[in-house]
Input
Amino acid sequence: MFSRLSSITARRGFRVSSIHSAAYPYNLIRNTAPTVMPPSANKPTAAIQFGAENGQNSIVGWVTGDAQAPIRPQNFIENRQFWPLVEEVMAQHAHVDPELQAQAAFQKTGWMNIADGRNPPPLGRTGNAEDILGCVLIEDKTIMPGSFQPNCAHRPVSADGLFQLPKFLHAKLLERLS
Output
């Protein structure tokens, strides 16, 4: 994949490096020459994005300071246009996510929190507010379509790193971004 990525980026005239971390299971790109910058006084050194497309929608946010530093709240500027896309994907597909369906079968009824994978709570416990992506309504072990409610207290980046969607929803997000 990286050789394909290198050829795409060379044609488009920007420099990227893949981010590989045991703590983050998905492919990310650190683009050190983004064409889209945040409306901020802090000068970013790199865009953190999914995919090689150099557009606003694929940029999760920007890091300031050392371009190779770990992504932390202190050095991260959120792309305010990105998160509504994540919530849209979750609203459209949470009810068919196999992992969430299994959790719904266990819970049976009521509102179920969707935990951020970067810091999942112990089974049967509620996670930290910043680590709850949103919630869905369960009736008779089934997630009700259209019931997703985003959590306004969720933070895309916390001390535990960048947000992590369930695998199915992450794949749907990548489809939406392509």
In short: The first strand starts at residue 16 and ends at 21. The first helix runs from residue 2 to 12. The chain is about 25% helix and 30% strand.
